[in-house]
Design goal:
Belongs to the binding-protein-dependent transport system permease family. By secondary structure, the chain is an all-alpha fold. It is 75% helix and 0% strand. It is built from 15 helices and no strands. It is globular. The two termini are 36 Å apart.
Length: 292
């Protein structure tokens, strides 16, 4: 490019960069503003929530008292809900990631009869929203006597059509077929090849599927709402909504300060999970690569 052409393109590039900066700043503000509101209001008392500006602190800093009261309210039921949510995430989301990884890898690297039919079924399953399956799932689990048990949440969480499809697409390109053939010629079994070689190459995809599954299970609301009637098995989503519902009715007992504080505490594990797992997106890109 000549000097005059470069000089003519520079103002346009600067204007374009300025517009993109403004747009991205608006997106960041849109994303962070609710979190800022949540953090600010978690420091307020019940009275300050209605008498002070929503985007600034109240007359007293009550964050620690709100946290203590959240963990001790009704004999510490919040701790039970937190434990239930962790159980559903570890077993459900973790199991969904393992199953999606192994199934996606198998579909990508092995040829067998009916492979295209399986692909069509998976694509169709991805297109079906989870809420459309909630009622049929409830009826089926009711016939099996599994409603109002942890299995009513864990078993449906193990199925992740989108995670399977994602791993299928990712494994098709991330794992070279020549590398698998070389491992087989060296006498490695299929399971050893998968766990020692393929999983390293699949790590970015595995982490992506895991994060999707963790967020979906952590935020799952409708399925636990219809499956569970015992508050002792509620996850945080249903439990906090139950606290919020206490503000209505003849014997209303509003505890908005605990609902907001509990909501703030419930997002901390998700943030920590993202911070801990994001490094695998970078390290996994080169792990186990083939040396030419």
């Amino acid at each position: 490019m000549t000097a005059p052409a470069l000089a003519r393109s520079t103002p346009f590039a600067r204007r374009k960069s300025l517009v993109l900066t403004i747009v991205m700043s608006l997106f960041i503000l849109y994303t962070l503003l609710p979190l800022f509101w949540l953090l600010i209001n978690a420091t307020k008392t019940q009275g300050d929530l209605f008498t002070t500006f929503g985007l600034w602190f109240g007359d007293s800093f009550n964050l620690w008292n709100n946290i203590v009261e959240t963990f001790t309210y009704r004999d510490g039921i919040f701790v039970r809900w937190l434990g239930n949510t962790l159980l559903y995430v570890v077993v459900g989301a973790g199991g969904a990631t393992v199953l999606a990884t192994m199934a996606g890898y198998g579909l990508a690297k092995y040829n067998f009869r009916g492979r295209k039919a399986v692909f069509a079924v998976i694509i169709g399953a991805v297109a079906v929203p989870g809420t459309a399956l909630a009622v049929p799932t409830f009826l089926m689990f009711s016939q099996l006597g599994l409603t109002n048990t942890p299995w009513a949440i864990i078993i449906p969480s193990l199925i992740s059509p989108f995670g399977l499809y994602l791993m299928w697409v990712f494994a098709s390109d991330a794992v070279p077929t020549e590398l698998l053939e070389a491992a087989r010629m060296d006498g490695a079994s299929e399971m050893r090849t998968f766990f020692t070689i393929s999983t390293k190459l699949l790590m970015p995809g595995i982490v992506t599927v895991l994060l999707f599954a963790v967020v979906a299970t952590w935020n799952n609301y409708f399925l636990p709402l219809i499956m569970l009637s015992d508050p002792a098995w509620y996850p945080l989503t249903v439990g906090l909504n139950q606290w919020n519902a206490q503000a209505t009715g003849a014997a209303a007992q509003p505890i908005y300060n605990l609902v907001i504080t509990g909501s703030l505490l419930s997002i901390i594990p998700i943030v920590v999970a993202f911070l801990l797992l994001q490094r695998f997106w970078q390290s996994g890109l080169s792990a186990g690569s083939v040396k030419q």
